[in-house]
Protein 1
Amino acid sequence: MYQTLRTSLLSNARCWDATSQRSYQDLFNRLDANQDGKVDVAELRAGLKAMGIFRHGAAQKIVSSGDQNKDGCLDFNEFTKYLKEHEKKLWLTFKSLDRNNDGRIDASEIQQSLAELGMDVSREDALKILQSMDIDGTMMVDWNEWREHFLLYPAHNLEEIIRYWKHSSMEPDSILWELGETSVLDLGDSLAIPDEFTEEEKSSGLWCKQLAAGAMAGAVSRTGTAPLDRLKVFMQVHSTKTNQINLVGGIRQMIVEGGLTSLWRGNGINVLKIAPETAIKFMAYEQGKKIETHKRFMAGSMAGATAQTAIYPMEVLKTRLTLRKTGQYAGMFDCAKTILRKEGVIAFYKGYVPNLLGIIPYAGIDLAVYETLKNTWLSYYAKDSANPGVVVLLGCGTISSTCGQLASYPLALVRTRMQARASLDASDQPSMTSLLRTIVAKDGFFGLYRGIMPNFMKVIPAVSISYVVYEYMKTGLGIS
């Protein structure tokens, strides 16, 4: 019964013509159970169940995506606009899987597409994927079957559809993924760790190799850009309106004071903190997602905050070691003992509040700008693929990271000043707000952006080094 209803409602839902408008209206009327001209989450959920295509969380995601006036439901115009946009994205993904452009997807095309993403599936598993979408029994999926299967499911790009296949109602062990969700580039210092790993990945040890590859890429990237990072911190703390320090002048001062190797001061602990930060973030995410698995972003944010809290004393040590004068400390442990003896435990958490506050605007703006740029590019330039390509993604990431840094940089500067303040003047320990006011009063608004130029300069080399090292490490560890 539900298959007949599902086919009658969806099979004629052609996009971008008058027929589709009537099909959308018919579908909307059937979903609008109380006939009030709006479809809310409960009605959509009930409708999906009636058509036999209910998927956990789909109704909420569809309403959230299409609800333009934020009234918690979809009117017909919102419903129609959502479906048209969704179909366009589904079409791009379908075309990217249709390798030979014959209008149909077969098992070999699924295998080939997933293999390019580092995921190996057998022909039998690819056929099982096809079978879940195949209506006419040909073991091939045409556009109508693809659209019908995913029209009322919020997944549209290949990554989301792979996750759906990965966690769908098929046999849990039917698809043994050789590699899980690939790490994405963090346009700061290193590669970000994946959000989750499958049980197969955990038992096989592949997750350890992925983390090792990411850690090595981060270590090489941080070492390669360490002079720019030290220059940034140097300018944040020492540059003022009356003591202008430019890029060349700052480098020259550091070399004159401590020699060429002084450009790498603080890099040792900056590299060492990758391992505990990654491990704590991963473990915290594993615990966080068990509380409310549908809130991945919240779990990720909590994991990041947990890791930052645990390793923050190392951040303070890094700042002090970066700013140290020749002979001031015998090493990392001597620095830690000196701080503890002279300033107490609280000194290891100087600047902690602005550090956490800075995560909010950076993460929010970075993500929002990245998604906006990527979707805009797809809307105007995508033709046969929903994958923008590495160059476009790196461009979107660079711009979004820049916007995030512009929003959060004043807080980062205040954090660094507070971390360094005790070693500079023990009698002057201002709060975050008073330090902000002092900087603006003495140096003006742009005083909040001291050192941002070397910070921007290190983004592209950091990304490039991370990407290259990560790919070589994957090959070397056998996970390419």
Note: The longest strand covers residues 38-40.
Protein 2
Amino acid sequence: MAERCVNEQVSAASTDRKTSSTAGKPLCWQHRLFGKQLARCSYVNDTRKSIDSAAATLVHEDGRPSCEIVGMYFSFVNPGATCDDFTRQLVELYASVNSGGGDSGEKKKKFEVVHVVLWSNVTEVFDFDESFRAHVADLPWLAVPNRDYERKTRLTRRYRIKAGVPTLILLEASNGSIVTRGGVERTIADPIGAEFPWRPPHPKAALEDGPLLSCGARDSNEPMLHEELRHCFKGIYFSAHWCPPCKAFTPQLVDTYQRIQERGHDFEVIFVSSDRSEDSYNAYTETMPWLRIPFNQEERRRKLARAFDVQAIPTLVILDPRDNIITLDGRAELIEDPEGLNFPWSSRLVNILTEKYATSLHDAPAIILFVEGEDCEIQFGESVLLPAAQAYRRDQPDYDLNYDDPDDDSLQFYIALDCETSDILREFIGLDDAVPLLTAIDIPRGLYVVMEYGAEITVDSVQQFIDRFLNNKLPINKIAAVHKTSKINEHMPA
């Protein structure tokens, strides 16, 4: 009976996936990111009016966004406090920016806010619903419903929100791309929004504005021009000699930089200093094997910091050969992947399973191929998984390789190497050590399936395995150790 219930659950999930993929028009990014419903803060004390459709609130019937910029505001409630200082500043900015527009009919509001309310100290909260209402009552914008704990967890994990730190992230309403993560700092510096939404300048002008000099550990002392790097992926490294985390990260970057180059990638790093003296700058660059912006070009360095919305150091930004941003968080990517196996850390259909990606297994089902970890096995894994991943994505609506799709039912594809992350996952699921081993793991639903032992793993057999999994035609195994997150913990950021 228990197995039958699990099978019925998978069948329903598969049907839901197909329905969302093929029936009607594709869901807009606002709906996929924020869910089906949002609370209107001004009505939180009136249950008849407090919940709106996210799509209807943020998007017109014809599909056009109802505003130009969506601000995602993560705030933390201190027990007894109804509104913190920054919330009041944001209300003033909201009113100032929208003073020239309308919020109904065909007029497009310039700025809308979606509030994500979290708690700094859950042990002192007796009633979360009452605390939520007190925190947002009479605010002029929208909020993720208080009881949508899973959505809040996904958003805090997705945008890597730090506990206790209010964060305002501005998104383009047209496509959901990030304008700036530093909305709090920008609001404080520009409280009436005179330069809202603070879109950063393109970095190319600053990169091209003069020579790039060699650092002390580089093989060549010849300066270079940015034009000479037109075939390279580039890492723009913001750091300083006086900064302890920077001094700890720089040797890691040197090691990974060399490993990436040894694998044949055209990869160059450009150091942008935040040092306070030229002597410190010179001492620091002596250990670096890459290029640098001259210390005396302070304005050029400032332009680059503004272009990449740098909030703190060390920061590593990864650019493609055309100087488009691949990731603003290259430091985290490198720490998760010191061998550079997923370089250039762009959004890919098939990824190496690292600790960072392992957390996403709690959000959506995944196809995972376990291998030993040699380069040839990684290449084999990519060769058999990629066609299936491409075929699956073609059937999904509104897919963009450069957009981190928050669709709850989106299937993930990974290669799991022989490492600690894989060992932990195997123990959690209950898998043996056989490799290669193809699995479909669905932690949200507490189940997994395994390709028949001894079966040949090919492009065709992988595709057949995935099709049978999605159509509930494979023997189902239950994950006995699936964690049951408590209601209190769901209030906390991931």
Note: The radius of gyration is 24 Å.
Protein 3
Amino acid sequence: MPTPPPEPPPVGHGGSGQPGDPAGPERPDAPGPGRPDPPNGYAVPARLWQTLDRRRPPGADAVADAWRSPVRGPWLTAVLGAVLLATLPLLMVTGLLDWIAYGPRLDQAFPRDVGWLRPPVFDWPTRPAWLFRLTQGLHVTLGIVLVPVVLAKLWSVVPKLFTWPPARSAAQVLERLSLLLLVGGILFETATGLLNVQYAYLFGFDFYTAHWYGAWVFTAALVTHVTIKLPRLVTALRGPGFTGTPVARTRPEPADPDGLVPRRPGPATMSRRGVLALTGSGAALLAVLTVGQSLDGPLRRTALLLPRGRQPGEGPNGFPVNRTAAAAGIDAEQTGDGWRLTLRAAGRTIELDRRALLAMAQHTARLPIACVEGWSTTQTWTGVRLRDLAALAGVPAPDTARVRSLERAGLFNQAALTAGQVLDGDSLLALRVNAVDLSPDHGWPARIVVPALPGVHCTKWVREITFEEADGG
């Protein structure tokens, strides 16, 4: 086996002259590795930065020197940064696609009014039928799996949060501001996203609005930070690798301009390979405990982190449900023999009871339902095609259809469907699932099921459908 390259010698020297010896105090503002000699180390206005450097907060150097791990440095930070740089764009793109899937053209995406931040939108397609299941499942799963990587990256750069002065030039001010927004943004998005998945709304604001604007702040900070730091990342990755070095031979990297290498490194307790292995193992464990929510079969039982991602019961109706009939305020009287489906179109009104719907041509399709919290499931649905109901109402080619539920309150007690969603051959007013009647929790007596449609728009306990023509008829 080839011998791994030796690691560079340690940088800080204490009073004994031994690497990492903290005995001899070193003036924090003295010239040394990674610390330029004033005033050449300051940009305009140099006097401001010098004044800040001289007026150091009490304990600033003690706190900065408390971070002594010799594995910190440009290489480890660059490796973790490269992982995030490869995965975070996917997280942002899937989040944006999920917002588009909610139908901003029909004024039902949240938040609704996004002003100049509104991206180009399109009508969400119905094919492939698993499209929303993929985008939303990937968004939630990837967001959870990346938590250990984010924490490791923050750990690798945490000493920089205590450097003084905070900046030595206007360019560094911009860098530190982008770093503040980057760290704050990713922690905010991660924390609120995890709470939403767990249905723990501990915050006193609307999740959708906060998550949307938080994502844009984070995106702007990420683009700025990458623009500034990409050359350093590439240089660090092109340098000697350290993954093959055992703990006994782990040494700090040479001092770097960013101050990532500790000034007084201590003895190594873990190699860089160990840090990456620990981070990767944590991410893999979270993947195992999460990915089952987006898959049917035995793996669903491994989704221990998801409150509604596992199998909730047995029988044909034994699959996850986001909102029960009791939670929605639906009682047996509303869904009993007196229930009627009302169809409206072009001034016409038709009422159908469940028996009349069952007498119409029935269609069966195996389709997934995917929830915004990340879980999804594929079941076999049977009912009346929406396009047949549109034709019955006298609008064979509707521009939109607006569906209303028996549920009187809540954000999703109604939904709007595009022409493509209404006319798809597998779009159903479902009356049965897996060859049995729908249960009350799954939408009895009738619910909407459309390929690739977000689960919250697959309206349950349907009471009315209005088909609208392009001219508003």
Note: Residues 99 and 109 are 6 Å apart (CA to CA).
Protein 4
Amino acid sequence: MAERRRYLSVRGGEWAFAAVGLPLALVGGGYALAVLYAGALLSLTVLGLPFVVAALLGARGLGALHRRLVGRLLGERVEEPAALPRPVGAVARGRVVLTDPVAWRTLLYLVLRLPLGVLGFAAAVALPLGCGWLIGFPLWGRLLEPGPRPNPWLDSASALLGLVLLSAVPGALRALSGANRRLARLLLGPARAQQRVRELETARAALLAENTDQLRRLERDLHDGTQARLVALAITLSLVEDALAPAAGPDLGRLHTLVDRARGQTDDTIAELRRLTRGIHPVALDGGLAEALPGLTATSPVPVTVRLDLRERPGPGVERAVYFCAAELLTNVAKHSGAGSVELSVTAADGRIRLLVRDDGRGGAALGAGTGLTGLAERLAAVDGVLRVDSPPGGPTVVTAELPARL
């Protein structure tokens, strides 16, 4: 029953896109074909290049219209491409437009959208009307020719064929809607190179902001913590010097107390510095992930099972990213999941490294849900990594980070 309901469930936007999209498909397909035909004819004249430049700018506008239509009716959000740069001079601007991959891909989309638009209109409008005519064929025949029918089996076959075809309408619409979504994602969004540049810019901005925050926090901790401890140690040493200088001779009891105090302040300062430097570069990583991760999991309040398959050692920057990613994920498990056990596995082979953290908690984790996963995904993107989260309500939660072994 659930499969049948899913098969029959067609969103209103899909019907509207199939019905309303035909005129736009005809206009867009005709525009693209006319541009290609006229551009080829005018390519040997002085009007050829200006015509193609204007036509490509128009294609960008049609692409924006189709992008909004796909977003509103099909629920498929297609990222808007970057705006064209505006260099100085008509020749330079024309060269930018002629080499714009977004405009050429939009022309290809308009050409391919034409047959899909015709098929969609046929599935949403023409096919249901034809099915209604077939199902009502016995009635139409009796109204047009009263009296006994010479071929009564034809009426039954017509009604049966109409019902069969009508049952295929939802599946056809869903298939065509899926094809339109994939086509829009492929051709109406930014080019892969542009999208990659945008992702790297976003990741770089996030990484710079995070590093700035870390530096400010480190400066504050050094000023308010370590510096204060060193000042206290200097004062204690000054008191030791005073205790050695009196005319009656050194006060051994006071000296013993002051030396103990100085030793304790030194130990506290060393521990403070060790804590601060651990956030910059964990000392455990000097021996690689095989030594660092078991030590990290040993401090987790939730029992962790560690599985490592490190056939090759990643680069230092990647090791550091994997280490802090594992630390962040284990912290999230302890704070938010309510899990009783965690499994952490790391595999490094064939130039890729994969970190998987699985817990048996309550689930419901998602990127952007306030558990730090969004920031973690941005930091991984800075090293060309990808974060995937699978956390249905009730659990289990599986978070996978995959990134290249070397940058």
Note: The chain has three domains: 2-187, 193-278, 284-404.
